[in-house]
Amino acid sequence: MKPLKSWLGLAMSVSLLSGCFDSEQQQPINSENSAQSSRIKLAMLLPPRSGLTPLSDDAFKLSRWSTAETLVILDQEGNLAPALATHWEQLSPTTWRFQLRSDVTFHDHTPLTAKAVVNALSTATSAMPKPRILDGVTLQIRADGEHAVIITSEIPDPLLAQRLTSPQLSILALSAYGENGVINPVLAGTGPFILTGVNGTSSATLDRNPDYWGEPAQAEGIDVSFVPDGLARSSALRTHSADIVEAIPVSQAPLLDQSLIHEVPMPRTNTLYLNTRHGVMQDPAMRAAARDAINRAQIVDNVYEKRADIAQGLLGPALPWAAKLRQPVANPTPAALPEGAHITLATFTDRTELPEVAVYLAQQLTDAGFTVDQVVREYSQIESDALAGQFDAFILSRATVLDSGDPVAYMYSDFSCAGSFNIAQLCQTDIDNALQHAASLPAGPERQQAIMEAERLILASDAAIPMLHERVIQGESERVRAAVRDPRERTLVSNQTYLVSDQQTMQ
User: Fold this and answer.
1) Considering the domain boundaries, does residue 4 fall inside one?
2) Are residues 289 and 151 both part of a single domain?
3) Domain ranges, residue 317
4) pTM for this model (two decimals)
5) pLDDT tens column, 113-144
6) Is the CB of residue 215 less than 8 Å from the CB of residue 13?
């Protein structure tokens, strides 16, 4: 059994760089010490794709804003820590019990109960498609009194509790769940900030939650703008129209005050996915030819201005154990290219660097003998075509441990026969078996070794060619204190984040 730790407000602050004021001269702005607003202006990279439903990647916005919370969270070391659940125990290989906090109120003023948790998690398990953290997983959830739930998996799942840390399994009030699967997170979370309004794909507004179960937020609220254009986001930092800016493009970083930008190593890999089911790339030799054509150093040096790491595998330096356990990959010898081997190379505009990566890759593949057409659109307009296998090659910036702190879920989603995000259309029995073996093991060295064996098989297929591991560049104005620099991209503004006055920044 995991004991309850008396860490007030831990659910929203375990990733913090600092939870304290810098000094007596560095107090948060309030009505007594400044006329300036203490609302944090936040410029974000991607607009909502699915109406901020927690069952999509939009869940990570709700998490980064500290408005929606999960039963348990991951601390800085990747270990489980309490959040809406105070402690938990594994009753059998397939059954876990989670004890809920009794003092939590949703933003609509209804109490956190076992009924609400059962509803939220059952909705996720029955969704079509499921949240990717539940790929290949069947769960049953039932109440055990008013303040506990029992969660049972169809087969033993050693990482069941880790799965529950995914923002896609956030617990929202019963009022959030409408007809026809519509979920509205406004006034429905439990976090230190209340989501009070969403203006389509333009903006969102959050206010401090005065009834938060943990330590109240230092800031009055958050005003979010969705700014897909990288130049515009950078300008927002330069002109003080944003306090925190997500994902400064590497091309803009040298033009900014270097004290305002912070590189965060990410478990994110820029990967070229090749279509193994349709077109030219069905042929393993053609995939190998594409692999050999890629000049990673040229892309890192010229597109990322050396603010990235050349990839040796799918898992990068954010997981230091991966390099130690990686084994050589036996790749097939590429065949001579037939004249005019024609491929379509696609990517999206939302991550500023990717269209430029596409230009370099297209030239490298052309030099190797391919004829290359490029397709570049906004992500919301290209995702469905990519998942349907409409392109021969697709460049994707992919988080590798986003959901559970463990890469098996990402590998299963992207490379198993039943994976919900299988852009490469890959289906190989040996890879599925390796992933199932890794998934059956508890966290620790044996599981890590099994993960690297699965990686070796995936790399040998040449269905995915890892090119580089990214470092996100986060912008923070001089007024910002305790913004969260989170490699897992789960928290950005926490209950500890606040602003100081312009006068205080000069002291």
Assistant:
1) no
2) no
3) 265-470
4) 0.73
5) 999 999 999 999 999 888 888 887 899 999 99
6) yes
